[in-house]
Amino acid sequence: MSSTPLHTEFDGIAQLRDALQNRQISARELAASALAAAESRADLNAFLHIDHDLTLAQADEADRQLASGHAPALAGIPIAHKDVFVTRGWRTTAASKMLAQYVSPFDATVVSRLQQAGAISLGKLNCDEFAMGSGNENSAFGPVRNPWDASAVPGGSSGGSAAAVAAGLVIGATGTDTGGSVRQPAALCGVSGIKPTYGTVSRFGMVAYGSSLDQAGPIARHARDLLELLDPMSGFDPRDATSLEYCDGIQNQPGRIRADFDASTAQFDAAGSQPLKGLRIGVPKEFVDEALAPDVADAVRVALQTLESLGAERVDISLPRTALSIPAYYVIAPAEASSNLSRYDGVRYGHRAEQYKDLAEMTSRSRTEGFGDEVLRRIMVGTYVLSHGYYDAYYLQAQRVRRMIVNDFQRAFAEQCDVIVGPVTPSVAKSIGDNRDDPTADWLADIYTLSISLAGLPAMSIPCGFGSQRPLPIGLQLIGNYFTEGRLLALADRYQQASDWHQRKPEQK
């Protein structure tokens, strides 16, 4: 069988759905070809667990639904899940030795909702351990490699998801974004990814890193494919205490984002040759600084010109506390990680040391052996900032800065602009191992994404060019006000109709 998956012959989920419903191709054929392709690209290290029987059983069920004429919207569509979503059958390791053999007795809400929509899972995708990292080098099972250049990182923590989509192994994948972990790997791999408003997608069954920051989001090649995945993923979940029942007065359920997308698209269509006329695009001066590589700045500038040619108005704005997002995030996120990861103690589940003298030593040895260096580093930072005598000085202050960051965004949206646009990353992808001697260097790569996560806003990355010194993808970041995911996707779709960066693919090996 060819190592080129059959779904790559179709331009997106909508076209593939038509082929499946018209019986031009079967879900089983589609799944089998995708499995073969995934195994032929083991060099990318994108997948951590593949199970043919599980995938083909789902495909057979999709074929039965398609034959009945009552198939759900995603019936037979091949996707895969980041390995922080618990799944029945497939292992859920969070890319950690701590959970190396763990198999969940239940599915995460994101997994079950996409399965109910008919999507076929190829398996579990590699990531930074417990989603802690910006390059996907922190996985206990080895780094993921960027399909555009095997010596480069794919971005993190959802690097396996972005790499699998970029390489054409799946048409879409789930990811999680705590400080930029959907947007950043999407940018570095030349695909599209969106982080919705915090609370719009259930966190139930997602292995927790930073509970007030973690949010699930899809990665795909096109903005329209993101819509096809995000809409059924979203919705209120009573099992998740952070799940929102209403989004600005509208019930949080599948259909909300699609309705917003359709309304925005209709508005753009009505404007004719200037579809974005009246749309104010804010460009933060803090996003164009000395950290931004010239080739990234050039690509973003050209993308802005494209949006202006479509009728958008550029507005220069300021988000004055952008630089403070790094220290604020790296106090808040490790503090929450310290709390969340305390459950891995070698007693109930997860890795347990073989040799120990007493309970205290068992816990200590188990955690030391089970967690990688970056996870241990963040646990120690988090424990320190939460300790007596330091809580007020660090954690409380970081939360105050977080509120100021929220206010900066709300002031910009209320007074100056409708959407904010800028770079996703300061540079194209680094080489694997570049930051080995400075483990905090990766933290600086999140300068343009962290503030959005701290504010809980929706944001996405779409391809907008390639580097000049190193021809690797560059991403454009679109940031919206709360609950405007559909409008962001419609804007991204309009940009992608006027450009072809999202259509470009790495050479097949």
TrEMBL record:
Q: Which residues form the active site?
A: K82 (charge relay system), S157 (charge relay system), S181 (acyl-ester intermediate)
InterPro entries listed in its UniProt record: Amidase, Amidase_CS, Amidase_dom, AS_sf, GatA
Query: In this protein, which residues make up the domain named Amidase?
Result: 34-489
Q: Tell me any Pfam family this protein matches.
A: Amidase
Q: Which GO terms describe its biological process?
A: translation
EC number(s) stated in the UniProt entry for this protein? 6.3.5.7
Q: Which SUPFAM superfamilies match?
A: Amidase signature (AS) enzymes
Q: Which GO terms describe its cellular component?
A: glutamyl-tRNA(Gln) amidotransferase complex
- What terms describe the molecular function in GO for this protein? ATP binding; glutaminyl-tRNA synthase (glutamine-hydrolyzing) activity; transferase activity
What is this enzyme's catalytic activity, as reactions? L-glutamyl-tRNA(Gln) + L-glutamine + ATP + H2O = L-glutaminyl-tRNA(Gln) + L-glutamate + ADP + phosphate + H(+)
Write out the entry's keywords from A to Z. Answer: ATP-binding, Ligase, Nucleotide-binding, Protein biosynthesis, Transferase
| Nucleotide-binding listed as a keyword | yes
Complex formation: Heterotrimer of A, B and C subunits.
* Protein task: Allows the formation of correctly charged Gln-tRNA(Gln) through the transamidation of misacylated Glu-tRNA(Gln) in organisms which lack glutaminyl-tRNA synthetase. The reaction takes place in the presence of glutamine and ATP through an activated gamma-phospho-Glu-tRNA(Gln).
Q: Cross-referenced PANTHER family, in alphabetical order?
A: GLUTAMYL-TRNA(GLN) AMIDOTRANSFERASE SUBUNIT A (PTHR11895:SF151), TRANSAMIDASE (PTHR11895)
Q: Which family does the record claim for this protein?
A: Belongs to the amidase family. GatA subfamily.
> Under which name does UniProt file this protein?
Glutamyl-tRNA(Gln) amidotransferase subunit A
